[in-house]
Amino acid sequence: LKEEGITAYEVGYIGGFGRTTLGGAVYLNRTKNMIMFTQSEAFTPVTPARFTYRNFANVSDRGLELSFDTRLTPALTAFANYSWQADPEPTRFSGSQLNLPPSHRANAGVSFTHGRYFGSLSGSFVDKAFWQDWDPVFVGATPAHATIDGGFGVRSADDAMTVAVRGKNLLNEAVKEHVFGDLITRTVTGEVIFRF
Protein backbone atom coordinates (compact mmCIF):
# COMPACT_ATOMS: atom_id res chain seq x y z
CA LEU A 1 0.00 0.00 0.00
CA LYS A 2 1.04 3.58 -0.65
CA GLU A 3 0.73 6.02 2.22
CA GLU A 4 -2.49 8.02 2.30
CA GLY A 5 -2.18 11.80 2.13
CA ILE A 6 -4.58 14.67 2.54
CA THR A 7 -4.49 18.32 1.50
CA ALA A 8 -7.01 20.40 3.43
CA TYR A 9 -8.26 23.90 2.73
CA GLU A 10 -10.52 25.81 5.13
CA VAL A 11 -11.69 29.38 5.39
CA GLY A 12 -13.56 30.39 8.53
CA TYR A 13 -14.81 33.34 10.54
CA ILE A 14 -15.84 33.81 14.17
CA GLY A 15 -17.19 37.15 15.31
CA GLY A 16 -18.66 38.53 18.51
CA PHE A 17 -21.53 41.00 18.39
CA GLY A 18 -22.47 42.02 21.91
CA ARG A 19 -23.93 38.94 23.58
CA THR A 20 -23.96 36.96 20.30
CA THR A 21 -21.20 34.95 18.60
CA LEU A 22 -21.46 33.91 14.95
CA GLY A 23 -19.23 31.45 13.16
CA GLY A 24 -18.90 30.01 9.70
CA ALA A 25 -16.45 27.90 7.70
CA VAL A 26 -16.15 26.26 4.30
CA TYR A 27 -13.70 23.47 3.63
CA LEU A 28 -12.29 21.26 0.89
CA ASN A 29 -10.31 18.10 1.68
CA ARG A 30 -8.50 16.19 -1.05
CA THR A 31 -7.34 12.69 -0.11
CA LYS A 32 -4.73 10.94 -2.24
CA ASN A 33 -4.19 7.15 -2.31
CA MET A 34 -7.18 6.58 -0.01
CA ILE A 35 -6.88 3.23 1.80
CA MET A 36 -10.15 1.32 2.08
CA PHE A 37 -11.19 -2.19 3.09
CA THR A 38 -12.84 -3.72 0.04
CA GLN A 39 -13.96 -6.97 -1.53
CA SER A 40 -11.33 -8.49 -3.82
CA GLU A 41 -12.97 -11.80 -4.79
CA ALA A 42 -16.47 -13.29 -4.78
CA PHE A 43 -17.97 -16.77 -4.83
CA THR A 44 -21.14 -15.38 -6.45
CA PRO A 45 -22.32 -11.81 -7.22
CA VAL A 46 -23.84 -11.60 -3.73
CA THR A 47 -21.39 -13.78 -1.78
CA PRO A 48 -17.99 -12.26 -1.04
CA ALA A 49 -14.98 -14.58 -0.88
CA ARG A 50 -12.07 -12.35 0.11
CA PHE A 51 -11.48 -8.87 1.46
CA THR A 52 -8.35 -6.76 1.54
CA TYR A 53 -7.08 -3.21 1.97
CA ARG A 54 -6.41 -1.36 -1.26
CA ASN A 55 -5.39 2.07 -2.42
CA PHE A 56 -7.97 3.98 -4.36
CA ALA A 57 -7.16 7.12 -6.34
CA ASN A 58 -8.34 10.48 -5.03
CA VAL A 59 -11.43 11.66 -3.15
CA SER A 60 -12.60 15.23 -2.61
CA ASP A 61 -14.83 16.19 0.33
CA ARG A 62 -16.34 19.63 0.75
CA GLY A 63 -18.75 21.23 3.15
CA LEU A 64 -20.01 24.17 5.14
CA GLU A 65 -20.42 24.79 8.89
CA LEU A 66 -22.40 27.59 10.56
CA SER A 67 -22.84 28.34 14.27
CA PHE A 68 -24.67 30.82 16.49
CA ASP A 69 -24.87 31.30 20.23
CA THR A 70 -26.22 34.12 22.32
CA ARG A 71 -27.01 35.09 25.90
CA LEU A 72 -30.70 35.99 25.93
CA THR A 73 -30.74 36.98 29.60
CA PRO A 74 -28.23 36.63 32.46
CA ALA A 75 -29.77 33.21 33.15
CA LEU A 76 -30.66 31.98 29.65
CA THR A 77 -28.47 31.13 26.64
CA ALA A 78 -29.32 29.73 23.23
CA PHE A 79 -27.34 28.10 20.45
CA ALA A 80 -27.78 26.69 16.95
CA ASN A 81 -25.45 25.10 14.45
CA TYR A 82 -25.73 23.62 10.98
CA SER A 83 -23.42 21.66 8.71
CA TRP A 84 -23.67 20.55 5.11
CA GLN A 85 -21.41 17.96 3.53
CA ALA A 86 -21.45 17.12 -0.16
CA ASP A 87 -21.22 13.54 -1.35
CA PRO A 88 -17.56 12.52 -1.74
CA GLU A 89 -16.27 12.97 -5.29
CA PRO A 90 -14.00 10.07 -6.36
CA THR A 91 -11.42 10.27 -9.13
CA ARG A 92 -10.69 7.21 -11.29
CA PHE A 93 -12.83 4.79 -9.32
CA SER A 94 -16.54 4.19 -8.77
CA GLY A 95 -18.37 6.10 -6.09
CA SER A 96 -20.17 2.84 -5.26
CA GLN A 97 -17.10 1.99 -3.14
CA LEU A 98 -17.78 4.88 -0.76
CA ASN A 99 -19.99 5.45 2.23
CA LEU A 100 -22.11 8.59 1.94
CA PRO A 101 -22.30 10.83 5.02
CA PRO A 102 -25.42 12.73 6.08
CA SER A 103 -25.76 15.80 3.85
CA HIS A 104 -27.39 17.92 6.55
CA ARG A 105 -27.00 18.13 10.33
CA ALA A 106 -28.57 20.73 12.61
CA ASN A 107 -28.74 21.34 16.35
CA ALA A 108 -30.44 24.00 18.45
CA GLY A 109 -31.11 24.44 22.11
CA VAL A 110 -31.36 26.57 25.21
CA SER A 111 -29.84 26.31 28.67
CA PHE A 112 -30.48 28.16 31.91
CA THR A 113 -28.79 28.68 35.25
CA HIS A 114 -30.64 30.45 38.03
CA GLY A 115 -29.24 30.33 41.53
CA ARG A 116 -28.79 26.69 42.44
CA TYR A 117 -30.93 25.42 39.53
CA PHE A 118 -29.85 24.61 35.98
CA GLY A 119 -31.23 22.85 32.93
CA SER A 120 -31.11 22.49 29.18
CA LEU A 121 -33.29 21.47 26.23
CA SER A 122 -32.01 20.78 22.73
CA GLY A 123 -33.05 19.23 19.45
CA SER A 124 -31.01 17.73 16.64
CA PHE A 125 -31.57 16.56 13.07
CA VAL A 126 -29.36 14.18 11.09
CA ASP A 127 -30.02 13.50 7.42
CA LYS A 128 -30.00 10.02 5.88
CA ALA A 129 -26.65 8.32 5.22
CA PHE A 130 -25.48 5.33 3.20
CA TRP A 131 -23.26 2.65 4.77
CA GLN A 132 -21.68 -0.53 3.48
CA ASP A 133 -19.51 -3.16 5.08
CA TRP A 134 -19.12 -5.46 2.08
CA ASP A 135 -21.72 -7.86 3.33
CA PRO A 136 -25.14 -7.86 1.65
CA VAL A 137 -26.75 -7.87 5.09
CA PHE A 138 -24.97 -4.67 6.09
CA VAL A 139 -25.50 -2.41 3.11
CA GLY A 140 -28.10 0.32 3.05
CA ALA A 141 -29.25 3.71 4.16
CA THR A 142 -30.03 4.91 7.63
CA PRO A 143 -33.13 7.15 7.66
CA ALA A 144 -33.04 10.80 8.63
CA HIS A 145 -33.95 11.32 12.27
CA ALA A 146 -34.62 14.05 14.80
CA THR A 147 -34.19 13.81 18.57
CA ILE A 148 -34.91 15.92 21.64
CA ASP A 149 -32.58 15.89 24.66
CA GLY A 150 -32.95 17.65 27.99
CA GLY A 151 -32.06 17.72 31.62
CA PHE A 152 -32.29 19.64 34.86
CA GLY A 153 -30.59 19.70 38.21
CA VAL A 154 -29.91 21.50 41.44
CA ARG A 155 -26.81 22.26 43.49
CA SER A 156 -26.78 22.19 47.28
CA ALA A 157 -26.57 25.49 49.11
CA ASP A 158 -22.89 24.92 49.93
CA ASP A 159 -22.16 23.76 46.35
CA ALA A 160 -20.82 20.45 47.70
CA MET A 161 -23.43 18.26 45.97
CA THR A 162 -25.18 18.36 42.59
CA VAL A 163 -28.20 16.21 41.69
CA ALA A 164 -29.31 16.03 38.05
CA VAL A 165 -31.52 14.05 35.67
CA ARG A 166 -30.63 13.91 31.98
CA GLY A 167 -32.61 12.44 29.12
CA LYS A 168 -31.63 11.65 25.54
CA ASN A 169 -34.09 10.99 22.73
CA LEU A 170 -36.97 12.01 24.96
CA LEU A 171 -39.61 11.32 22.28
CA ASN A 172 -38.36 7.72 22.10
CA GLU A 173 -37.73 7.65 18.35
CA ALA A 174 -36.07 4.45 17.10
CA VAL A 175 -32.80 5.92 15.85
CA LYS A 176 -30.25 3.92 13.89
CA GLU A 177 -27.05 5.88 13.38
CA HIS A 178 -25.30 3.11 11.42
CA VAL A 179 -26.82 0.46 9.17
CA PHE A 180 -25.45 -2.34 11.37
CA GLY A 181 -25.58 -0.37 14.62
CA ASP A 182 -28.00 -0.71 17.50
CA LEU A 183 -31.38 0.96 17.65
CA ILE A 184 -31.10 3.86 20.08
CA THR A 185 -34.22 4.75 22.05
CA ARG A 186 -34.93 6.92 25.10
CA THR A 187 -32.21 7.01 27.75
CA VAL A 188 -32.70 8.68 31.15
CA THR A 189 -29.86 8.89 33.65
CA GLY A 190 -29.54 10.35 37.11
CA GLU A 191 -26.34 11.60 38.64
CA VAL A 192 -25.17 12.75 42.03
CA ILE A 193 -21.85 14.59 42.22
CA PHE A 194 -20.03 15.31 45.47
CA ARG A 195 -17.25 17.88 45.75
CA PHE A 196 -14.73 17.46 48.55
Description:
The chain has strands spanning 5-17, 20-32, 35-44, 47-55, 58-73, 76-85, 89-91, 104-114, 117-126, 129-132, 139-142, 145-155, 161-168, 175-176, 183-184, 187-194. The chain is an all-beta fold and 196 residues long. The strands form 4 sheets. Strands 1, 2, 5, 6, 7, 8, 9, 12, 13 and 16 form a 10-stranded antiparallel β-sheet that branches. A two-stranded antiparallel sheet has the order 3-4. A two-stranded antiparallel sheet has the order 10-11. Strand 10 (129-132) and strand 11 (139-142) form a beta hairpin. The radius of gyration is 22 Å and the shape is extended.
Provide a compact summary of the structure.
By secondary structure, this protein is mostly beta strands. It is built from no helices and 16 strands.
List the helices and strands and how they pair.
Layout: E1 5-17, E2 20-32, E3 35-44, E4 47-55, E5 58-73, E6 76-85, E7 89-91, E8 104-114, E9 117-126, E10 129-132, E11 139-142, E12 145-155, E13 161-168, E14 175-176, E15 183-184, E16 187-194
Antiparallel strand pairs: 1-2, 2-5, 3-4, 5-6, 5-7, 6-8, 8-9, 9-12, 10-11, 12-13, 13-16, 14-15
Into which percentage range does the β-strand content fall?
over 45%
Distance between the termini: 54 Å
Structural class: mainly beta
Number of helical regions = 0
What percent of residues adopt helix (DSSP H or I)?
under 10%
Q: Give helix and strand order, one letter per element, not per position.
A: EEEEEEEEEEEEEEEE
Largest sheet: 10 strands, antiparallel
Nearest-integer average pLDDT: 90
| Uncertain runs | none
How would you sum up the global shape?
A: extended
Number of strands: 16
Report the radius of gyration as a whole number of Å.
Answer: 22 Å
